[in-house]
């Protein structure tokens, strides 16, 4: 099966001012965005509070909630109505009720898997979600190198549920993009390669150009 690969800008901001700046910079080319939000405990990162998250109405937004107890933010998530909400397999509570509530509100569900987590151990979650995010960087930090060994999880997850949308988070840049694009992924999230450059639009199109044009969504 030939899959298309979508390059999605990732936003991780410490302040409302920085968040707006990143949104405005990627608005020239983005139609789908990956928004990282941390509770400040699960991930050693300070981001804007989820109550301050917003995006242009024409975009599809994926919220990646790095939280030990995501149910605490469920009410806000339901009001925001993202296209996709990604929770961590390593959270400190049962995610099945949270996923069920999201699905009732027509919000797609996603599961993020940290490098130390084997997919088979969280099969109960993979069975019910729409998206699995293979995390291969440093949680809550943009610019960390990719652990390319995490690519082995792609085939494992695909064999468990072939129809899943599988995403990648961590170290996507000009040096890794071609390998990732040919690894049976559906989504490649790109953080610092876009947020820490002066010309994100140009870099975005260069990243897309690294992928076989027959397998690219632009």
Structure in words:
The chain is α/β, with parallel strands linked by helices. It has a single domain (5-217), classed as TIM Barrel (Alpha-Beta Barrel). 27% of the residues lie in helices and 22% in strands. The protein contains 8 helices and 9 strands. It has helices at residues 16-26, 74-80, 96-104, 123-126, 152-160, 177-181, 192-195, 200-209; strands at residues 5-11, 32-38, 60-66, 84-88, 108-113, 131-135, 165-169, 187-190, 216-217. Strand 6, helix 5 and strand 7 form a beta-alpha-beta unit. The protein starts with a strand and ends with a strand. The model is unreliable at 214-218 (pLDDT under 50).
CATH topology: TIM Barrel
What is the structural class? Answer: alpha/beta
CATH superfamily: Aldolase class I
How many individual helices?
8
Strand content: 15-25%
Radius of gyration: 16 Å
Order of H and E elements: EHEEHEHEHEHEHEHHE
CATH class (first level) name:
Alpha Beta
Euclidean distance between termini CA atoms: 20 Å
What shape does the CA trace take?
Answer: globular
CATH architecture grouping = Alpha-Beta Barrel
Task: Summarize this structure as a short list of keywords or feature phrases.
218 residues; alpha/beta; TIM Barrel; eight-stranded parallel barrel; 8 helices
């Amino acid at each position: 099966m030939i899959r298309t690969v979508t390059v999605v800008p990732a936003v991780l901001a410490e302040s409302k001012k920085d968040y707006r700046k990143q949104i405005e910079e990627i608005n020239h080319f983005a139609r789908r965005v990956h928004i990282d939000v941390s509770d400040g405990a699960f991930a050693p990162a300070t981001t804007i509070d989820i109550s301050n998250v917003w995006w242009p109405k024409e975009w599809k937004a994926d919220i990646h909630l790095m939280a030990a107890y995501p149910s605490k933010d469920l009410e806000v998530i339901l009001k925001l109505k993202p296209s996709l909400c990604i929770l961590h397999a390593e959270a400190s509570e049962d995610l099945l009720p949270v996923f069920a509530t999201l699905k009732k509100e027509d919000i797609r569900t996603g599961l993020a898997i940290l490098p130390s987590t084997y997919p088979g151990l969280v099969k109960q979650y993979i069975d019910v979600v729409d998206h699995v995010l293979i995390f291969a960087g440093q949680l809550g930090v943009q610019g960390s190198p990719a652990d390319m060994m995490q690519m082995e999880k792609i085939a494992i997850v695909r064999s468990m549920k072939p129809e899943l949308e599988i995403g990648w988070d961590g170290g996507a840049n000009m040096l890794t993009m071609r390998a990732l694009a040919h690894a049976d992924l559906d989504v490649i999230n790109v953080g610092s390669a876009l947020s820490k450059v002066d010309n994100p639009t140009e870099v975005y199109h260069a990243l897309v150009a690294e992928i076989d044009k027959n397998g690219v969504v632009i």
